[in-house]
What we know:
- By secondary structure, the protein is an alpha+beta fold.
- It is 27% helix and 8% strand.
Amino acid sequence: MRSEGTTHIITFKDGTERVFSELSYANLSGADLSGADLRRANLSDADLSGADLSGADLRRANLSDADLSGADLRRANLSGANLDFTNIPIWCKSLNVALDDQLTVMIISHACANASDGWPGLTEDQKKWLISVRHRTYHDEKKSIAKSLRAKE
């Protein structure tokens, strides 16, 4: 991927190139975004299925409602990214991803909540801590978004 002003030129696995002025809602299925600098990019609702995002810098990117099924996330940096309502593939190509504490806690708490025995091997104190961190980070994020929206008015 390369950017020229507000235009993004993206190469796909079949070698074709497509030009995008907006990345939210974009069909980037099969795109080669390996090593791309996508910091703070708005990729909300984008179709990234089968995309190569290995080594991509997605810090603070908005990936809400994005489709990441089959995406190669190896060595991608998702610290601070918004992954609300995003599907994260659980396979070998989603290993070694850089996550911040908030995303790590969110993934762990979701996995534990879906385990057949609820919270396998965790003490009551550990369960309470995970729940408190998940709720605290969620509410802190909501407050931060509300504050930034008020600042823009």
